[in-house]
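Escalated from tier 1: adenosine monophosphate holo job.
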Amino acid sequence: MNLLLIGPPNAGKGTQAKKLIDHFQMPHVSTGDLLRDNIARKTELGILAKSYVDSGGLVPDELVIDLVDQALSQYDLQKGVLFDGYPRNIAQAENLDALMAKHDARLDTVILMQADDEVLINRATGRRVCSGCGATYHVTGRPPKISGFCDICHEPLIHRRDDKEDVISHRIDVYKQQTRPLVEYYSKTGRLLKVRGEGSAEEVFEKIMSLLGNKE
Ligand code: AMP
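Tier 2 regenerated the structure:
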């Protein structure tokens, strides 16, 4: 089973992706993670991609498509992969369908995670990330014991540039303009399941599992 999670930034795709890959024991292809890794390692691709990621815009298709081609060469598409954050526009979706067909595979199910804009903005503006171990907190929802410092490794917490209000609002607009057309693209072929990304991570996961169960 090849799965795709789509939805606006902060709808909870990353959290549900972790749960799904644990449950189905499938590899996870997240272009956001791959890009952040390249940026941190200052690879040629990372240097080219950084300004787009920092501003909340989409990285040009040719860079991202290359990255996905490379990542997929490590996996067996017959056994299933979870895509998260890719494709993000129609050109990428068409490229993925063609790539899948080349491997005699197909994208079976697309899970659309939805949440209201205020929820998405609140999650981002309140999120703090540990500069040491990467643990995440929320200033009101899950505050650290000592304000500004990680409970686990005691390093300072940071507010990621792409979580600042101006950037998150821009990312939501980019989603609406470029990624939301995929909802129609996938629903036309009967591959789309919709879930509200609100409530606890466990509740959302249960909703996804029951939708997947009902589909079989
Ligand atoms: P994410 O962690 O999936 O929200 O991605 C973080 C950022 O990486 C996005 O705001 C984009 O700048 C970039 N990005 C991730 N995936 C893609 C993609 N499929 N196409 C273009 N840019 C992407």
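The longest strand covers residues 109-114.
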